[in-house]
């Protein structure tokens, strides 16, 4: 039933609970887990109000990539005893858009995502990533509280 499960993680407690839930589903159905971390680069309209040079923006993006890689390393450690296949990738872009695109690209049968992540105030203005994923994904989405 769920042979390929996409699990976005951002290092928040909610994303680790989602990963744990995905592991249980993966064990039950013999599924492959594809774990992704999505970083949103510094290119927001809010930054237009503050003059930043290219080097500053690039340095900020580099730091975000390092954090994303660390989150994926933590996910690998958590999955060290998982007997099914696991894949890990770092994506760059808007989180909900990249999650949906990766679900299509990987042929995921389901997405397991935490109900709240680290997006903070952006959720208040833009709507949560999990609700956007649930609304626009073409596969079942399990939102873990």
From TrEMBL:
A family per Pfam: Usp
Domain of life: Bacteria
Transmembrane segments: none
Gene3D superfamilies xrefs: HUPs (3.40.50.620)
Stretches assigned to the UspA domain: 1-145
Matching InterPro entries: Rossmann-like_a/b/a_fold, Universal_stress_UspA, UspA
Similarity field: Belongs to the universal stress protein A family.
The protein's name: Universal stress family protein
Organism classification: Bacteria, Bacillati, Bacillota, Negativicutes, Acidaminococcales
């Amino acid at each position: 039933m769920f042979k390929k499960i996409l699990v976005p993680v951002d290092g928040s407690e909610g994303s680790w609970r989602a990963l744990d839930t995905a592991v249980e589903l993966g064990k039950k159905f013999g599924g492959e887990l594809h774990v992704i971390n999505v970083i949103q680069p510094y290119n927001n309209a809010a930054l237009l109000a503050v003059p930043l040079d290219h080097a500053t923006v690039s340095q900020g993006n580099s730091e975000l990539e390092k954090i994303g890689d660390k989150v994926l390393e933590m996910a690998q450690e958590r999955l060290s005893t998982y007997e099914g296949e696991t894949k890990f990738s770092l994506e760059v872009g808007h989180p909900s858009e990249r999650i949906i695109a990766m679900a299509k690209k990987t042929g995921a049968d389901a997405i397991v995502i935490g109900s709240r992540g680290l997006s903070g105030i952006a959720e208040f203005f833009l709507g949560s990533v999990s609700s956007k994923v649930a609304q626009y994904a073409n596969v079942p989405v399990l939102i873990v509280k």
